[in-house]
Amino acid sequence: MHSVQPSAVSTIGRLAATIDRLTRQIQEAQRAAEGRALIEVAKGILIERLQCGLAGAAKQLELLAEQAGVTQLELAADIINQAAQDRISEATHEFLEAARSRPDQRGTSGMAVRLRSAENGVVAATDAQAVAESLLEHALAPLGATAVAVWAVGSDSSLSLAGYAGFNPAEAERWRYVPPGVQTPARDALVERRTVWVRALGDVGRPTIGMGITPYGGRVAVPAGTGGRILGVLEISWPGPIEPQPPQVQKQVEALAELCAHTLEIPDDGARSAGLSRLIVLADALPDAAMVLRPHLDAGGHLTDYRVCHVNSRFVDPAGRPHGAVAGSLLLEAYPLAAGDDGLFSKIEHVHATGEPFVAENMTLTALVEEVPLQNLVTVSITRHDDAVLLIWRLQDEATRLASLLQHAQRLGRIGGFEENTLTGKISWNSQLYDLYGLKPGSEPIPLERLGDHAHPDEATVIGRFLRTVLHHRRPATTAFRLQRPDGIARHTRVVAEPVLATDGRLLAVRGAYQDVSAQHWTEVALAATRDQLTHTEQQAAERNKLALQLQRAIMPVTRGPMEAFDLNIAVRYRPAEKEHLIGGDWYDAVVLPSKRILVSVGDVAGHGIEAATGMVALRNALRGLAATGAGPGQLLTWLNMVAHHLTDNVTATAICGLYDPETRTLRWARGGHMPPILVRQDKASELEMIGGLLLGAVSEVEYEEDQIQLLPGDSLLMYTDGLIERRDRAIHDSQRQLLLTASHPTTTLEHRLDHLLTHSNSDTDDDTCLVGIQLVSPGQPAGLG
């Protein structure tokens, strides 16, 4: 083994240090050159605006930089931005505005310098490879990006790697060409014509350059184009996932893509002219109508329309205009209705932007003929060739279009046509008729006179009458019959036929059609059965509603006079539902018990119809019977709950039960899921305190709380069901507040108070309503006066 002499090691170290130093000097010199270029451009702007010489511009730049507290390079970039008013200026302005709102953010003051340095590097670059390297070094590396790829878009929407930086050469070689149809982030940006941000490649599963090295890295793909045409895609790579970026960074990225577009654009007008000439020669050789379109740009370089620069000799204008009236005009001037959302213009714009060809049959092309729209079905082909677009269309022949329309109509209507030549015996069927008969195409057609052999035996009479009319009397005829197919399926079929006669009256042929009307037949049968069933159901429902109404009115008349008991005035109001099918289970009761106490109650059974009415009768009568035991209201509701749960058919209800003692003038009450009573004292209404009480019939065993209130002379107590206040558009507690305001209205009698409540009820559910009022008569006041 040979040892390395110390002198040799020191020599190698000195050489390495020298190389590093020279490399840094070269990079600094490049940056200085780029900085000097920006300063010189800024001096030129000052000379033009201040009308001074070169020395004066240099002195003015130095003075302004000193006053602003920035370097001359940063000031030069700002001057260029203000003078240019381009996308780079816009991106820089927004970035710096955001930076001023976040004073702690660092590194933003050099934003304009970085972008202008990148622009300077792009202008000085000789190819897309140098562009990629300049973008990564000057503008993208400060954003955290580690690699960049510049894709050029081919005329067939393929992608070619025009330049790259940060990727290894072997990976770049593998991705030199991406055929059309391969879905990559760059392809997505091209087809969608927008910037595509990918947080991490693993999230989207799209292959792309460098994905094996940074499988979870973030990507952004930006279309790069000018004049409505996408010339390439700028793809930027980050080593890890990227979060949503602020608008200022997005603007910066789009500005860099625009720099790439100017590099990828073909500057040689001669090459463009040669390509356009070849395209015109191609259009003239086509057998179909063709036109060559070129983009029409406004003063700002934005695409607004396409110029028809050539039409071939086979061009046929849908509006009947000569070639000269279309050639040379703008596309939207010649065909203004092509500007629809999914019309012809949008397809041309997409092809021109992306290079992705478009082909469609039966596309509607609308032309204006003296302000009247004329629609034509055409087959369209659109392709891009360099900066031009070739549009080819073929107007459908009228006979072909009508034949296609007839064929589709026969298929949709299940119609099969036939013709029988009576002289030669030849029979012609179309394909639908073979399907209708259940025969294979090419089988021997069945003559019309043998129709009875393939019909249901019960149809012999109608078939014979039909054949005599057509073949003997030689008149058109139609009939319906059941066709028996070889596979055993019967189809309800209608046949129509007419004879073709010679001038001397001889029968030459018979033409006609069969139509499968099975679906219509069974639909009519089903409708008839449904109609009968519906009529029967309606009759049953009407009878049930009538019975429920009679039962309800027999127990609770709509009108009932006032009741006087001891010193208590009692009045009730019942308002049934306006629609009979909404008859509910609301009830009220007021009765003097053997104990001289007075039972007052209201209730509401869930549901409508006969079930609710019979449930109401059961609970109302059960409560009357239970009250005779002398039990309190809480115990009465406990027993009534057992009746609802065990002795009725799934009845649930709400109720209030009150027992008034004339000796103590005390009302004891309990509630089962119902709204508490309202006390009106000196024309001020308030609800009694809510006490516990579960819905009747919900569970088998429930204990109900009791409360009591001492009535004073002149006091009124109101009990009601929810039909008085319930609304579809308002919460129940809002309706209760409105009821308290209405109940506070001064009235002369208790009955007037109940009538006033019913009159001003704002419910909208058309439900039954029960309202019970009791009033303690004041000393010396006759019963019935309030």
Automatic annotation (TrEMBL):
Statement: the UniProt record of this protein carries the keyword Transcription regulation: yes
Domain (PAC) ranges: 477-529
The ANTAR domain, residue ranges: 19-80
GO MF: phosphatase activity; RNA binding
Pfam families listed in its UniProt record: ANTAR (PF03861), GAF_2 (PF13185), PAS_3 (PF08447), SpoIIE (PF07228)
Swiss-Prot/TrEMBL keywords: Coiled coil, Hydrolase, Transcription, Transcription regulation
Coiled coil: 12-67
Name used for this protein in its record: Serine phosphatase RsbU, regulator of sigma subunit
Source organism of the structure: Nonomuraea jiangxiensis
Phylogenetic classification of the source organism: Bacteria, Bacillati, Actinomycetota, Actinomycetes, Streptosporangiales
